[in-house]
């Protein structure tokens, strides 16, 4: 199982998240006319960890998760749920063994939707560094 699939399994199994998003967890982008609140995720960096003896079987990946909502307050509430679910955790996510997961930055992003302010979405983006067994 890929780390992305393991991440989706972890997020979808977290009631505090699904109480907000239902099943709206998408790779890369929110579908056109997608309902919010929702999460999107994408891999932004990653590599195999090696030692002088070669590949160790451990990998490190940075995943960006975007918390998308109709209001800034809703986006921040979703951010809090994701942070609680992931930051400082380890364990099995689906069939992926995660050694450690750490928050690695956060930012508020403007929504570039065209139209009135009522059509705009609020986005809080977070990066997580995930160390896992390949």
Question: How are the SSEs placed, and which strands pair?
Answer:
Layout: H1 3-12, H2 15-21, E1 25-27, E2 38-51, E3 54-69, H3 72-86, E4 89-93, E5 96-109, E6 122-133
Helix pairs in contact: 2-3
Concise overview:
The chain is of the alpha+beta class and 134 residues long. The chain has helices at residues 3-12, 15-21, 72-86, and strands at residues 25-27, 38-51, 54-69, 89-93, 96-109, 122-133. It has one domain (3-133): Phage tail protein-like (STM4215-like).
Q: How many E-type strands?
A: 6
CATH architecture verdict: 2-Layer Sandwich
Task: List low-confidence stretches.
Answer: none
Strand order of the largest sheet: 1-2-3-6-5-4
Shape: elongated
Mean pLDDT across all residues, rounded?
92
CATH topology: STM4215-like
List the defining traits of the structure above.
6 strands; elongated; 3 helices; 134 residues; 24% helix; alpha+beta; STM4215-like; 48% strand; six-stranded mixed sheet
Structure description:
With 134 residues, this protein is an alpha+beta fold. The protein has one domain (3-133): STM4215-like. It has helices spanning 3-12, 15-21, 72-86, and strands at 25-27, 38-51, 54-69, 89-93, 96-109, 122-133. Strands 1-2-3-6-5-4 form a six-stranded mixed beta sheet. Helix 2 (15-21) runs antiparallel to helix 3. The longest helix has 15 residues, at 72-86. It is elongated. It starts with a helix and ends with a strand. The model has no long low-confidence stretch (mean pLDDT 92).
